[in-house]
């Protein structure tokens, strides 16, 4: 009896450990196996954030995504987003990995998908947003020393072009619309850009659908079943 209890306790601890360390878990049901990845707080790049900041570390997420793609057990990926943004290159790197996965992927924006969280939200094959969730779209900003020479501004333009190309390639929003939202003045205090909410994000074509957890999971399971049967995914 004690051995059974110890065995059950070890299984619980093994299931909880990935959630504690990387904010991810694997759900196994009769319909398929789904890996759940949470991207929360600030995306941490090449510099460490203070221990008091909630962060998602790209060096944890990238190999985890490779594992999900290669795993014969995992059928699909659900990405839960509530992020303020963070390191541009780290965020774009994660977004590119998700976009290049062959397995069914669904993203769900909860609370906020701000700044570099926008490319992360659209990187999945299907994207959902909660009605109360918000997304902030603004130009690229750099911390630290900025040298006021033409090369710096050209670098800014090239980074913004990378983000523009990725977002428009992985969503239905028009390039002109996204650029206008990015450069809009008068909406953000002491900043340039726009804040859009659930229904507006869908109307603009940035996000596919309004929905919650059950909607995102239902969509993911449908995609998994279609992939297993070899059918083309529904739009």
Q: Terminal Cα separation, in Å?
A: 52 Å
Q: What overall geometry do the principal axes of the alpha carbons give?
A: globular
Order of helical and strand elements: HEEEHEHEHEEHHEHEH
Number of domains: 1
Instruction: Outline the low-pLDDT stretches.
Output: none
CATH homologous superfamily name?
Answer: 2-enoyl-CoA Hydratase, Chain A, domain 1
Structural class: alpha/beta
Strand content: 15-25%
- The CATH first-level class comes to Alpha Beta
Q: Averaging pLDDT over every residue, what do you get?
A: 86
CATH-derived architecture = Alpha-Beta Complex
Rg, rounded, reads 19 Å
- Strand tally, please? 9
Helix content class: 40-55%
Major β-sheet, in short?
7 strands, mixed
Q: What name does the CATH topology carry?
A: 2-enoyl-CoA Hydratase, Chain A, domain 1
In short:
The protein is 44% helix and 24% strand. It has eight helices and nine strands.
Question: How would you portray this structure in words?
Answer:
By secondary structure, the chain is an alpha/beta fold. It has a single domain (58-229), classed as Alpha-Beta Complex (2-enoyl-CoA Hydratase, Chain A, domain 1), CATH 3.90.226.10. The chain is 44% helix and 24% strand. The protein is built from 8 helices and 9 strands. The protein has helices at 2-22, 58-70, 88-99, 117-122, 150-169, 175-183, 198-203, 213-229, and strands at 24-29, 32-44, 55-57, 76-86, 105-113, 126-129, 134-137, 194-197, 209-210. Strands 1, 2, 3, 4, 5, 6 and 9 form a 7-stranded mixed β-sheet that branches. The protein is globular. The model has no long low-confidence stretch (mean pLDDT 86).
């Amino acid at each position: 009896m004690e051995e059974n209890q110890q065995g059950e306790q070890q299984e619980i601890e093994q299931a909880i450990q990935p959630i504690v360390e990387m904010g991810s878990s694997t759900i196994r049901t009769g319909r398929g196996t789904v890996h759940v990845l949470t991207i929360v707080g600030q995306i941490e790049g090449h510099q460490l954030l203070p221990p008091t900041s909630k962060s998602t570390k790209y060096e944890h997420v990238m190999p985890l995504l490779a594992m999900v793609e290669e795993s014969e057990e995992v059928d699909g990926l659900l990405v839960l987003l509530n992020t303020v943004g963070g390191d541009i290159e780290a965020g774009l790197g994660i977004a590119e990995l998700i976009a290049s996965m062959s397995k069914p992927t669904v993203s769900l924006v909860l609370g906020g998908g701000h700044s570099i969280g926008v490319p992360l939200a659209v990187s999945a094959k299907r994207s959902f947003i909660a009605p109360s969730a918000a997304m902030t779209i603004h130009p690229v900003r750099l911390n630290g020393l900025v040298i006021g020479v033409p090369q710096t501004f050209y670098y800014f333009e090239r980074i913004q072009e990378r983000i523009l190309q990725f977002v428009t390639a992985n969503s239905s929003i028009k390039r002109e619309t996204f650029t206008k939202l990015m450069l809009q003045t008068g909406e953000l205090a002491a900043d340039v850009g726009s804040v859009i909410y659930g229904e507006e994000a869908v109307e603009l074509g940035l996000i596919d659908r309004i929905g919650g957890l059950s909607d995102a999971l239902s969509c993911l399971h449908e995609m998994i079943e279609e992939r297993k049967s070899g059918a083309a995914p529904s739009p």
